[in-house]
Structure to design on (173 residues):
């Protein structure tokens, strides 16, 4: 399924999808290059209807095929994910606003403890393979909306999301 209307960006994602069959390192490099291009030309979202929900984040499908799923995520002020890991590769870039990303070390199969927290500002790119456990949580700690673009290595028609397992913070035990 292709959501985008314009040929240039559809071609960009189709090429990236084909590259996902290459080695992990080669794919992550291609993912980063694709995100650099998207950051330079955010008009690729012009034809995409972005859902906005106060207090929550929304995932808006931009492109999808059998190998990759590309979402624009709109983070309202204060919205956050669970602590989670991924079953697939994940490359993301911050298009606008800023997010806080916290890494967690698992203490068992249900709980994790925070180890590091980063501010991901507009223009920042991060790419990772599903080597894990690789737990993190994303939070929009600001009072402004943030938008990020995420390229996941899964077929959105056969899986609900990129999340593998969800955890609770150790202090919630
Ligand atoms: Fe994640």
């Amino acid at each position: 399924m292709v959501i985008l209307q314009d040929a240039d960006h559809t071609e960009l994602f189709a090429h990236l999808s084909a590259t996902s069959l290459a080695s992990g390192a080669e794919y992550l490099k291609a993912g980063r290059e694709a995100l650099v291009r998207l950051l330079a030309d955010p008009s690729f979202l012009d034809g995409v209807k972005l859902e906005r929900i106060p207090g929550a984040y929304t995932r808006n499908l931009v492109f999808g095929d059998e190998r990759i799923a590309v979402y624009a995520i709109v983070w309202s002020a204060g919205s956050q994910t669970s602590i989670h890991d991924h079953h697939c590769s994940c490359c993301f870039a911050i298009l606008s606003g800023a997010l806080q990303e916290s890494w967690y070390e698992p203490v068992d199969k249900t709980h994790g403890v925070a180890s590091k927290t980063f501010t991901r500002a507009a223009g920042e790119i991060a790419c990772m393979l599903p080597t894990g456990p690789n737990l993190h949580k994303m939070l929009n700690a600001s009072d402004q909306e943030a938008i990020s673009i995420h390229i996941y290595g899964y077929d959105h028609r056969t899986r609900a999301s990129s999340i593998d397992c969800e955890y609770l913070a150790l202090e919630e035990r």
